[in-house]
Amino acid sequence: VQLVESGGGEVQPGGSLRLSCAASGFTFSSYSMSWYRQAPGKERELVATILVAGGSTNYLDSVKGRFTISRDNAKNTVYLQMNSLKPEDTAVYYCNRRFGPLGWGRGTQVIVSS
User: Fold this and answer.
1) Distance between CA atoms of residues 32 and 59, nearest Å
2) What is the DSSP letter of 87?
3) Confidence check: pLDDT of 54 > 80
4) Which residues of 7-35 are buried (b: 16+ CB within 10 A; e: fewer)?
5) pLDDT of res. 52
6) What average pLDDT score do residues 56-63 get?
7) How far apart are the first and last CA of the chain?
8) Strand partners, 78
9) Closest Cα to residue 90, out of 31, 27, 40, 15?
10) Among 4, 37, 74, 96, which is disulfide-ready with 101 (CB 3.0 to 4.6 Å)?
11) How does pLDDT run across 35-50, given as a tens digit for each residue?
12) Phi, psi of 104 (to 5 degrees)
């Protein structure tokens, strides 16, 4: 069972990044998936969730309208498109099952700085 996040990097405010999370070892299409983030010195927080069958999505208030979560069940991958990035979005981003979470992957670092 594995979750591997990728796509992070350093961008200027207002920039965009697309994060990917490749899942393996479980029936991906049967699980709601989420993105979380942890900023230095802060607790990990839930950023976005996409329910089973690519249906409903939910977002942290501070990212609504800027971030979009999506999934490709054929590729066992969940994505997070991040637009209009702000310095406060700087964090390590992780994916996991929303319910019945697995062990955390290494995450992918996002730095938003001018």
Assistant:
1) 13
2) G
3) no
4) bbeebeeeeebebbbbbeeeebeebbbbb
5) 86
6) 97
7) 38
8) 21, 71
9) 40
10) 96
11) 999 999 999 999 999 9
12) -75, 140
